[in-house]
Design a protein that fits this description.
The chain is α/β, with parallel strands linked by helices. It has a single domain, classed as Alpha-Beta Barrel (TIM Barrel), CATH 3.20.20.190. Helices cover 31% and strands 17% of the residues. It is built from ten helices and nine strands. It has helices spanning 30-39, 79-83, 104-113, 127-130, 133-144, 164-173, 207-212, 214-222, 235-243, 254-260; strands at residues 14-18, 43-50, 56-58, 119-124, 157-161, 179-183, 202-205, 226-230, 248-251. An eight-stranded parallel barrel has the order 1-2-4-5-6-7-8-9, surrounded by five helices. Strand 2 (43-50) and strand 3 form a beta hairpin. The structure holds SN-glycerol-3-phosphate and calcium ion. The site of calcium ion has 3 residues, from strand 2. Residues 1-11 have a biased composition (Basic and acidic residues).
């Protein structure tokens, strides 16, 4: 464990809503993100994929089966085809609530309308399948919304990936955008330079890895890295992350985590 002085202040830790307020509402829908903003989340996490006609949509899976009433692969469907599907009713079949696919641009409009600073943690899926087009389109849209920073410390946006390739692409095209390297199984190998894979500026381990090896977080912090952990829903996991000096908690339950933090 870390020294107690390394603990994160309860008021300072950032609470990021994973796919919106997604324990309560269907993930990646406008209502799930609106709820997260109402609940006071500091930021929003989303996964982005490219449609067949080159638009970014907020969908986690490769296919639409789990979270919609349709069938097919996101990258093989146009935005018009995806827009004909309902992404809202799968979660609570007894009380259907229709919800269209959420475009990344619509999400940025919600953030712009929030009237306060909202952090965005955007995960690009999938680097091999899209051969870099998802990262370049993401940066183009961020630029259009004035969200490309001049310096990393002023950025409200960060790009996350399990893929070193994706992070290198972002670094080359927009070096001031902070990048989070995600991992869930293997421990990171910090070489002589102690730098993160993919030239990332932030470490993003999954909570199971943190539980199994809390010393790994301490080592990352000693190497000077910021640590953002996903997906932190349980009270004991919130406490563990605070004890370890984690900077941001990515959670499906932002209201519960904020209440636990006394906010
Ligand atoms: O926030 C990172 C986390 O979302 C990565 O896993 O599968 O939920 O996208 P996944
Ligand atoms: Ca994700």
């Amino acid at each position: 464990r870390t020294d107690r002085t390394d603990r994160t202040d309860r008021s300072a830790v950032k609470v990021i809503a994973h796919r919106g307020s997604s324990a309560a509402l269907p993930e990646h829908t406008e209502e799930a993100y609106r709820r997260a903003l109402e609940e006071g989340a500091d930021g929003l996490e989303c996964d982005v994929r490219l449609t067949a006609d080159g638009r970014l949509v907020c969908v986690h899976d490769r296919t639409v089966e789990r979270t919609s009433d349709g069938r097919g692969t996101v990258s093989a469907m146009t935005l018009a085809q995806l827009s004909a599907l309902d992404f809202g009713s799968w979660k609570h079949p007894g009380e259907p609530r229709r919800s269209p696919v959420l475009t990344f641009e619509r999400l940025l409009e919600l953030v712009a309308d929030a009237g306060r600073r909202v952090e965005l943690a955007v995960e690009t899926k999938h680097p091999v399948r899209y051969a870099g087009r998802v990262e370049s389109e993401l940066l183009r849209v961020l630029g259009r919304f004035g969200l490309l920073p001049a310096a990393p410390e002023e950025s409200a946006v960060r790009v996350m990936s399990f893929s070193e390739l994706a992070l290198h692409r972002v670094r080359r095209a927009a070096p001031a955008v902070p990048r989070v390297y995600l991992w869930e199984r293997r421990l990171p190998v910090l070489g002589r330079t102690r730098s993160l894979p993919g030239g990332a500026s932030i470490a993003g381990p999954g909570i199971e890895l943190v539980r199994r090896d809390p010393g790994m977080v301490a080592a990352l912090r000693r190497a000077g890295h910021r640590v953002h952990v996903w997906t932190v829903d349980r009270p004991e996991d919130v406490e563990l992350c605070l004890e370890l000096g984690v900077e941001a908690l990515i959670t499906n339950r932002p209201a519960e985590v904020l209440a636990r933090l006394g906010r």
